[in-house]
Amino acid sequence: MKIGFIGLGTMGSRMATNLIKHGHTLVVNDMLKANAHSLIAQGAHWADTPAALGSQVDVVFLSLPGPPQVQEVLTGHESLTAGLRAGSAVFDFSTNAPRVIRKLHAELSKKELFFLDAPVSGGPTGAASGKLVIWTSGDEPTFKKYASVLSCMSDDVQFLGAVGAASVAKLVHNCMGYMFNAAIAEVFSMGVKAGVEAPTLFKALRSGAMGRRRTFDGLPTHFLSGAYDPAKFSLKLAHKDVTLANELGREVELDMQFAKLTLAQMTEALDRGWSDKDSRIAMLLAQEEAGVDVRCDPEVLKEILSR
Predict the structure, then answer these.
(1) Quick one: which of 26, 60, 165, 253 has the fewest CB in 10 Å?
(2) What domain range includes position 254?
(3) H or E element: which one contains 263?
(4) 170-185 pLDDT, tens digit each
């Protein structure tokens, strides 16, 4: 298949290489032609503009820094859409804003073009090895048409639904990761300042409950099922633990922003009379503020847990 690829940076160059390895012919474009040299050496064809690239292919993958660059490629001077034929598809691997994705989807639909958001996760190592996830949303028949091509770059290709859904999932994933980093940095630094050497503390944490399982493995048990009774570990006991951690922070003269915020949330949950329920019941407060209910059908949960 002859495929267009625009954006040959750290992620894009590696993903494009995997397409060539699987026998696909590539037409490539980037702001810096130097980024394409290794791909051209492997047989890729260079296009001077997005429009010139679009005139040669039926499907294009974008791997760009963010919304401004995606909009420029699609709607700017000598844009990709000016070259694409009706019925062609564009997959955006970039981390983009859902509102921008939906706007571009509407604009391209008027030109009989399919636009799907398909953000990826796995980093440069995953992009090189093909061990990364591609979350995709938009027109499902178009997704199915090119799923085998996506699989040349990914060992986990998922369809999430209506356009924009994949970008929402990517933002939730990345924001949560950096929030975890900030919280971990806060409490880990407290532990070191309180007298435990970093290697010793790391080894201890890695063998604890949080270190023994993947980050999201515990969500179906309480959060997604809405089952907080009987308690696996009660809110009152968890509240005590976080209170003690905050006290330790004060003793070593640290401003524990995340710990204080967590304690305030748990205190509000205690005030609701939830002290004997599972500690994760405090997660209901975020749902209430958002006006959503995240509970899943039991059969759906069984399927999730079986994977």
Answers:
(1) 253
(2) 216-306
(3) helix 257-271
(4) 999 999 999 999 999 9
Q: How far apart are CA 271 and CA 169, in angstroms?
A: 32
pLDDT one-digit tens code per residue, 56-89: 999 999 999 999 999 999 999 999 999 999 999 9
Residues 6 or more apart whose CB falls under 8 angstroms from that of 279 comprise 231, 232, 233, 234, 235, 237, 238, 239, 266
Give the position of tokens 């062609």: 88
For helices 235-251 and 165-193, give the axis angle rounded to 10 degrees: 60
124 and 241 assigned to the same domain: no
Neighbours of 33 (CB within 10 A): 13
Quote the Cα angle for 265-271-273, to 5°: 120
Q: How many CA atoms lie within 13 A of 246 on its CB side?
A: 16
In a domain, 187, yes or no: no
| Total tally of structural domains belonging to the chain | 2
pTM: 0.91
| Residues acting as catalytic residues | 170
Q: What residues does 60 pair with on adjacent strands?
A: 4, 90
Q: What are the DSSP E strand ranges found in the chain?
A: 2-6, 25-29, 45-46, 59-62, 89-92, 114-117, 120-121, 133-137, 156-161
Q: Are 82 and 113 in contact (CB under 8 A)?
A: no
The three-class DSSP label of residue 101 is helix
